[in-house]
């Protein structure tokens, strides 16, 4: 299985407001950047959209190390999701928020062997800083660039 690094971030101008997500995929010496937007969303939705889009860009199952600065995304996929799935995507007396994205992330992650890492935001992680800038720019400009616009090499 190919080993790929996926670094992600989300941003929102207002919460809710105009949002942006970004991810960087690294395989060997190759680096690909993707970003997108939603005109009316929340920061948490953008934090989830980034890893989803990164995983969807893969052409085959890979061993993927996902790095995020979002504790919401990290805890959700590593701790909370097991309980949510057992409860049919409910938490206590209400449905899980952002369930559509959690389900998509679960599906996309299950096609790969994933590990997750947390990094402190704005703390010098070069790719996290770049994702932060790309996500903020996507939110501000409402522009996107992802796999459909920029085909990836076949080894991704």
Secondary-structure map:
Blueprint lengths: L2 E12 L2 E11 L2 E12 L1 H14 L6 E6 L2 H16 L3 E2 L2 E2 L3 H12 L2 E6 L7 H16 L15
Parallel strand pairs: 1-4, 4-7
Antiparallel strand pairs: 1-2, 2-3, 5-6
Helix pairs in contact: 1-3
Characterization of the model:
This protein has 156 residues and is an alpha/beta fold. It has one domain (3-141): Ribonuclease H-like superfamily/Ribonuclease H (Nucleotidyltransferase, domain 5), CATH 3.30.420.10. It has helices at residues 43-56, 71-86, 99-110, 126-141; strands spanning 3-14, 17-27, 30-41, 63-68, 90-91, 94-95, 113-118. Strands 3-2-1-4-7 form a 5-stranded mixed sheet. Strands 5-6 form a two-stranded antiparallel ribbon. It is globular. Residues 152-156 have low confidence and may be disordered.
* Share of β-strand residues: 25-35%
CATH topology: Nucleotidyltransferase, domain 5
Number of domains: 1
Rg from alpha-carbon coordinates = 15 Å
End-to-end C-alpha gap: 11 Å
Let me know the number of strands: 7
- Look at the structure and name the CATH superfamily: Ribonuclease H-like superfamily/Ribonuclease H
CATH architecture: 2-Layer Sandwich
